[in-house]
Amino acid sequence: MDLLVPYYEHPSARPAEWDAIVAAAPLLYGVVVNPASGAGTAPDPAFVSVADRLRAAGVCVLGYTDTDYGRRPHADVLTDLVRHRDWYGADGAFLDQVPTDPGAVPHYRRLGVAARAAGAATLVLNHGAQPDPSYAELADLLVTFEGSWDTYRELDLPVADHFCHLVYAAPASARLATRVKCAVPGGGAHPWGTLPYPLECP
């Protein structure tokens, strides 16, 4: 199983949950580290520690960076990428809020080059919906669905090895179509504050 885990809770507030994530290392494709809707303005010691533990367990650490559907300035995105690398040892990048239209491909091609130059061996683009096929050459993984289980189960989505589905408000019995995936029980405004199936907090 390849779980991509976007767990947006502070390690000092949820230490047992982070312990469970680290312990599940063999199941993980990667973990998105998101100290402050990005890298923040200064290193967070608790996230430094958990990122160190993840890397020691052989887990890819993906630094969360918001791109605001192409509206966020290139320099600001690059600053986040470099801070994730320098402060948290991120060896991958998770670019959030990526558009689906082909017109934005040149912008994201440039961001992809910057991410690779900043040390991102793994690059994930989160479109949240099916993007234009031209994005496939830019990244290792495309998140082609992010939404609720009720919506997901009504759709017949394309599947490919480089696609990932992120589903919230899902039952334990939920089965996702992609190889890389994440289904969590949480819903509402902050679904990614719950552990994914099949992780269980002791």
UniProtKB/TrEMBL annotation:
Source organism superkingdom: Bacteria
PANTHER family (UniProt xref): 4-LIKE CELL SURFACE PROTEIN, PUTATIVE (AFU_ORTHOLOGUE AFUA_4G14080)-RELATED, PTHR35040
Name of the protein: Spherulation-specific family 4 protein
Native source organism of the sequence: Streptomyces lavendulocolor
Organism taxonomic ancestry: Bacteria, Bacillati, Actinomycetota, Actinomycetes, Kitasatosporales
